[in-house]
Amino acid sequence: MKSFDVAIAGGGLIGASIALELAQVGLRVAVFDRQQPGEGASWAAAGILSPAPENAAMISAVNLGRASMTLYPGFAASVEEISGQPVGYRPKGTVEAFLSNDAQPKLSTIIALHHGLGLKAEPLSADDARELEPTLSTELQAAVLRPDEASVDNRALTKAVLIAAERAGVKIFAGRSVQAIHKSRQRCEGLVVDNEKIEAQWTVIAAGCHSAEIEGAAAYAPVQPAKGQMIALRCKTVEIERVLWSDHVYLVPRNDGRILAGATVEYVGFDKRVNAGGLQTILAGALELAPGLADAQIEETWAGLRPASVDHLPIIGPADLEGLLIASGHFRGGILLAPITARLIREWITTRNVSEDWSCFSPMRFVETAKATNP
Hints:
Blueprint: E1 3-9, H1 13-23, E2 29-32, H2 41-44, E3 48-49, H3 62-83, E4 94-98, H4 103-116, E5 122-125, H5 126-132, E6 142-146, E7 150-151, H6 154-167, E8 171-173, E9 178-184, E10 187-193, E11 196-205, E12 224-234, E13 243-245, E14 250-253, E15 259-262, H7 276-289, E16 297-308, E17 315-318, E18 324-328, H8 334-351, H9 364-373
Parallel strand pairs: 1-2, 1-11, 2-8, 4-13, 11-18
Antiparallel strand pairs: 3-7, 4-6, 5-6, 9-10, 10-11, 12-15, 12-16, 13-14, 14-15, 17-18
Helix pairs in contact: 1-6, 1-8, 3-6, 3-8
């Protein structure tokens, strides 16, 4: 029977970052992934690094996002150094554009919200915004510059983290399906992987939208897949420096000249097919925001499955089963939150204390709700 200090279910960016962090403090770590590690949601994402909340329900995750943003420059540099691979980190900010007639009230609300949360946000006139990003539509009414935001090439980053983890001593097992947590009484003692018991002092469930399919984990990680369709464009006449954001689309520049446009949010189970309706929605939003993209070539289309919890907040922390931790449900924030998630899991395993308040992300919130609903 294989035995490790830590067994991790899931080899995406979250699982790989946790593995790297733990291996760097001398722990024997194994990662098990049902497919090729790094080819799930981490591969399909856009790589936007923004702690700004998408809605009021997600405000409680802002401090976590800010903490991860602080870690990102060092995280990216360390991963590049260990792996020898570039990760495409671009700390160039975001421009949020308003094209509707109610732009000024929206602008005022966004500025007030960001300042109230301690996030930098600067109002821009339409002319000033187009001076920064000339590709923006002439229909633009106003904009907000969020200078502290960034983006990263999530595919390159995930690949680099996996390489770095292996070089740090992590054992990575591809094509190994985690069926269940292995428990004895009130303790988790590892995983059941393809009918084989894997012993571990600590077990981490970081299997993204598949976390709830692992027997024994669903009560702590009741996540469902949230499909997002994406398009990669290339246009010789359009240059974008920053992430551009509107009510209908976001555009993310890559160092190789591509521009990623996305993304839909669809609750259609594990369906990863790209369809005409989704692409039409993305392209309409992209051309409204940056009309010059009408000449762009479509280089690639794809869809990914984000892990969505009921409240759209991440699920990070220990369960009531000794030795079991959850790191799932990051929804649209998995790339952003990878460094802080890895740090918090490492801190808990090594010291039983954490540097950030993670109480509202506890997996026990679902267990307690279930008990209250079904006493």
